[in-house]
UniProtKB/TrEMBL annotation:
<keyword id="KW-0865">Zymogen</keyword>
<dbReference type="GO" id="GO:0006629">
    <property type="term" value="P:lipid metabolic process"/>
</dbReference>
<dbReference type="InterPro" id="IPR001969">
    <property type="entry name" value="Aspartic_peptidase_AS"/>
</dbReference>
<feature type="disulfide bond">
    <location>
        <begin position="116"/>
        <end position="122"/>
    </location>
</feature>
<keyword id="KW-0645">Protease</keyword>
<dbReference type="InterPro" id="IPR021109">
    <property type="entry name" value="Peptidase_aspartic_dom_sf"/>
</dbReference>
<dbReference type="Pfam" id="PF00026">
    <property type="entry name" value="Asp"/>
</dbReference>
<feature type="active site">
    <location>
        <position position="103"/>
    </location>
</feature>
<feature type="active site">
    <location>
        <position position="290"/>
    </location>
</feature>
<keyword id="KW-0325">Glycoprotein</keyword>
<keyword id="KW-0378">Hydrolase</keyword>
<dbReference type="InterPro" id="IPR007856">
    <property type="entry name" value="SapB_1"/>
</dbReference>
<dbReference type="InterPro" id="IPR033121">
    <property type="entry name" value="PEPTIDASE_A1"/>
</dbReference>
<feature type="signal peptide">
    <location>
        <begin position="1"/>
        <end position="25"/>
    </location>
</feature>
<protein>
    <recommendedName>
        <fullName>Peptidase A1 domain-containing protein</fullName>
    </recommendedName>
</protein>
<keyword id="KW-1015">Disulfide bond</keyword>
<dbReference type="InterPro" id="IPR001461">
    <property type="entry name" value="Aspartic_peptidase_A1"/>
</dbReference>
């Protein structure tokens, strides 16, 4: 099983290439990606924050090419300005087409159902009609998936799923009868196809990728992405099932073992900023590769460090600067004096204290909500992030004057992070 897991390597390449997808004779089958302009609603749709079963994704729609007689399936993808990459699949016999997100951060396949009567978003997307499929099998078990920005609910069904030239037999999927968020109404995709492990699948449904392997539809237990970051290119990229398209990379890839089945999770040794260790990964970190988001996400202190290094601006940055301008001297002096970092914000009154426990309003604790009577949550969180940042500056032997002058520094535009 371990050997099989290591062979099921997920290769993700984000190549800043301006090449269009050419005609090919290398035997690969492709699904192409397209780009569209990004707006706030689309970004929210692209980043579906996981709640219970952690489903989310980045979409797909496009055309498929079979090149040669190999067992590699290549599908072109559409790119919604680096936020959503989506392509087209077919469900049923004859196939009913849907634009879906290929998401490594989830494991279920779902599309809107023709029985979705009371969600307006269903009327703006393609809907699956079981009565029109000769290979449909009723299951009927109800299910629900919760997202940070909404939820979907429906019931399980079974039918054939066409992914490029590959037809996956008897695939269990979800017919969504309720889409409870404006996110889905504005999304450029109809549904989501999860490429994660079965361990995180709602209802223990076997994922499409697992069925591809078990039904012998691919020659290698490998799938790969090419994401085209050229905003003017018609082709947004491609996803390859059963191999790697050599036209879209040079040199060698680095392979890492999957450390935990669920997501495509691996060990992260360190995060470097300006070739210097941030110290945020002492003892090792776990990370996942998630095609369902255009963002780098992580613990608040780590993200704060990175944003500071690259000149990232925003609400959090502004709040942190406010804390530095008003309390920077005191925070520095308390840390130098040896006060534990987790006590600093409570000491200066920016986070609540119930007489026995430190209460960060940005971190879940055992303290009941009614006991938290002091400290604004945003300011408390900003203070905590500032403390972590100042502590790291101390470790790097920065001077107090240089650290506190950050409040007047202009944003940088060419910062780089090395992983």
């Amino acid at each position: 099983m371990e050997q099989k897991l290591l062979r099921s390597v997920f290769c993700l390449w984000v190549l800043a290439s301006c090449l269009l997808l050419p005609a090919s004779s290398n035997g690969l089958r492709r699904i192409g990606l397209k780009k569209r302009r990004l707006d706030l609603h689309s970004l929210n749709a692209a980043r579906i924050t996981r709640k219970e079963r952690y489903m989310g994704g980045a979409g797909v729609s496009g055309v498929h090419h079979r090149l040669g007689d190999s067992d590699e399936d290549i599908l072109p993808l559409k790119n919604f300005m680096d936020a959503q990459y989506f392509g087209e699949i077919g469900i049923g016999s004859p196939p009913q087409n849907f634009s879906v997100i290929f998401d490594t951060g989830s494991s279920n396949l779902w599309v809107p159902s023709s029985k979705c009567y009371f969600s307006i978003s269903c009327y703006f997307h393609s809907r699956y009609k079981s009565r029109k499929s000769n290979t449909y099998t009723e299951i009927g078990k109800s299910c629900e998936i919760n997202y940070g920005s909404g939820s979907i609910s429906g019931f399980f069904s079974q039918d054939n799923v066409e992914v490029g030239d590959v037809v996956v037999k008897d695939q269990v999927f979800i017919e969504a009868t309720r889409e409870g968020s404006l996110t889905f109404l504005l999304a450029r995709f109809d549904g989501i196809i999860g490429l994660g492990f079965r361990e995180i699948a709602v209802g223990d449904a076997v994922p499409v990728w697992d069925n591809m392997v078990e039904q012998g539809l691919v020659s290698e237990e490998v799938f790969s992405f090419w994401l085209n970051r050229d905003p003017d290119a018609e082709e947004g990229g491609e996803i390859v099932f059963g191999g790697v398209d050599p036209k879209h990379f040079k040199g060698k890839h680095t392979y890492v073992p999957v450390t935990k089945k669920g997501y495509w999770q691996f060990n992260l040794g360190d995060i470097l900023i300006g070739n210097q260790s941030t110290g945020v990964c002492e003892g090792g970190c776990a990370a996942i590769v998630d095609s369902g988001t255009s963002l780098l996400a992580g613990p608040t202190p780590v993200v704060t460090e990175i944003n500071h290094a690259i000149g990232g601006e925003g609400v959090v940055s502004a709040e942190c600067k406010l804390v530095v301008s008003q309390y920077g001297d005191l925070i520095w002096d308390l840390l130098v004096s040896g006060l534990l970092p987790e006590k600093v914000c409570q000491q200066i009154g920016l986070c609540a204290f119930n007489g026995a426990e430190y209460v960060s309003t940005g971190i879940k604790t055992v303290v009941e909500k009614e006991n938290v009577s002091a400290g604004d949550s945003a300011v408390c969180s900003a203070c905590e992030m500032t403390v972590v940042w100042v502590q790291n500056q101390l470790k790097q032997k920065q001077t107090k004057e240089k650290v506190l002058s950050y409040i007047n520094e202009p944003a940088k535009s060419d910062g780089r992070i090395n992983y």
